[in-house]
C-alpha cells in the first residue's frame, strides 16, 4: 500500500483517519488570522493527507472566506447557487423536496481551463445519520493500475464539459452562449501534482465526455475501467459530518462523492473554492 506521510507538526495536531488519505486537524480556528507557521503546517498537512478535516469551526461566513483567501484567489461558480451577499460561497442545500446530484465521483470544476486547487466545505445542517462524504486518493488509484494500463493512458487527454452536469437547466440558446464562454477543456488523463510531483488519475464521470482522439467505444470502455479505481475502499477516507465540521480537499489529488442516503432529511453545506492552475 501507499506509504503514510511522516511529517512532524509543531503547531497543530494531525490525526490520520486512514494510512494514505485524510487527517483530522485541530489546534487552530479557521479564519484569516492563522499565524504564518501554523498556516505552513496546514498547507503541508493538505499536501500530505490530500483531504483534511476540522471539527467545531463555528466561524462567521467572512472567516470562512478569509481562511480560503490564505490559500489563493477564490472562484465564483457561474452555474451553482451562491450565497446572497457572498458570491464566493457556493451553497448545497437538500430537503425533502430535492434530489442530490453530488453522489457521483468527481473533482470540482474540471471543465475549467484551470480547475480549482481545492475546496473548503463547511457543514451547517447535517441529517441525524447519513450524508457522509467519501474521498478517494487518486494517486493511489493511479499507482495501483496495472503497468499495461498505466502505459496505455500515459500521454492521453480527456475532454471535460460543464454541460454534462449543468447543461440540463439551460435552454439550447443559453447553452450555446455559455459554451462560448466555457468551451470544453482538454486535460491530461494523468496529471502531475504541481507541488508534490505525484501522478494522479484525472478523469471523472461527472464532467468527462470522452478521451480525445479515441474511438467512442474504446474511449467509453477505458473510462469505465479508470472510473472504477475511485470505488476501491483501500484508497478512500469517509467523513461523518457534524454541524461546523469542515473538509478541505486538494482537488488536484482527490475525487469526492457525497452520499445521498438521507432523503427526506435536510442537509446544507457551504463551499469556498480556491482557483487552481492548468493541469499538466
Ligand atoms: C461537492 O461535491 O462539492 C459537495 C460535497 C458534499 O456535499 O459533501
Q: Could you please describe the fold and organization of this structure?
A:
22% of the residues lie in helices and 27% in strands. It starts with 12 loop residues before the first strand and ends in a 6-residue tail after the last strand. The chain is built from seven helices and 16 strands. Succinic acid binds next to strand 6, strand 15 and strand 16. Succinic acid (SIN) is lined by residues 92, 102, 108, 119, 121, 133, 256, 258, 269, 271.
Please give the radius of gyration in angstroms.
18 Å
Class by SSE composition: alpha+beta
Spell out which ligands are present: succinic acid
- Overall helicity: 10-25%
Distance between the termini: 25 Å
Please provide the ordered H/E string of secondary-structure elements.
EEHEHEEEEHHEHHEEEEHEEEE
The amount of beta strand, in percent, is 25-35%
* Coarse shape: globular
Number of strands: 16
Treating each run of at least 4 consecutive H or I residues as one helix, how many helices?
A: 7
As laid out across the biggest beta sheet, the strand order is 1-2-3-14-6-16-5-4
Give a short account of the largest sheet.
8 strands, mixed
The unreliable regions are none
Overall pLDDT score: 95
Amino acid at each position: 500500500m501507499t506509504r503514510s506521510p511522516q511529517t512532524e507538526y509543531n503547531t497543530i495536531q494531525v490525526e490520520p483517519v486512514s494510512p494514505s488519505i485524510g487527517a483530522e486537524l485541530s489546534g487552530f480556528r479557521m479564519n484569516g488570522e492563522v499565524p504564518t507557521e501554523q498556516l505552513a503546517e496546514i498547507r503541508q498537512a493538505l499536501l500530505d493527507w490530500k483531504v483534511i478535516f476540522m471539527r467545531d469551526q463555528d466561524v462567521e461566513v467572512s472567516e470562512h472566506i478569509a481562511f480560503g483567501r490564505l490559500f489563493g484567489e477564490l472562484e465564483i461558480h457561474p452555474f451553482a447557487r451562491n450565497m446572497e451577499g457572498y458570491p464566493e460561497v457556493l451553497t448545497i442545500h437538500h430537503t425533502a423536496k430535492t434530489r442530490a446530484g453530488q453522489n457521483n465521483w468527481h473533482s470540482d470544476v474540471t471543465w475549467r481551463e484551470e480547475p480549482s486547487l481545492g475546496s473548503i466545505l463547511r457543514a451547517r445542517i447535517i441529517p441525524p445519520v447519513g450524508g457522509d462524504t467519501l474521498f478517494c486518493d487518486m494517486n493511489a488509484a493511479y499507482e495501483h493500475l496495472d503497468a499495461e494500463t498505466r502505459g496505455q493512458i500515459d500521454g492521453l487527454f480527456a475532454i471535460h464539459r460543464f454541460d454534462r452536469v449543468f447543461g440540463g437547466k439551460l435552454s439550447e440558446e443559453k447553452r450555446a452562449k455559455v459554451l462560448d464562454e466555457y468551451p470544453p477543456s482538454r486535460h491530461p488523463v494523468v496529471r502531475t501534482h504541481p507541488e508534490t510531483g505525484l501522478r494522479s488519475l484525472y478523469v471523472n464521470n461527472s464532467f468527462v465526455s470522452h478521451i480525445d482522439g479515441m474511438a467512442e467505444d474504446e474511449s467509453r470502455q477505458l473510462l469505465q475501467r479508470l472510473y472504477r479505481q475511485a470505488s476501491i475502499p483501500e484508497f478512500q477516507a469517509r467523513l461523518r459530518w457534524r454541524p461546523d465540521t469542515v473538509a478541505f480537499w486538494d482537488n488536484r489529488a482527490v475525487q469526492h462523492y457525497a452520499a445521498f442516503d438521507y432523503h427526506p432529511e435536510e442537509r446544507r453545506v457551504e463551499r469556498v473554492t480556491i482557483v487552481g492552475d492548468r493541469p499538466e
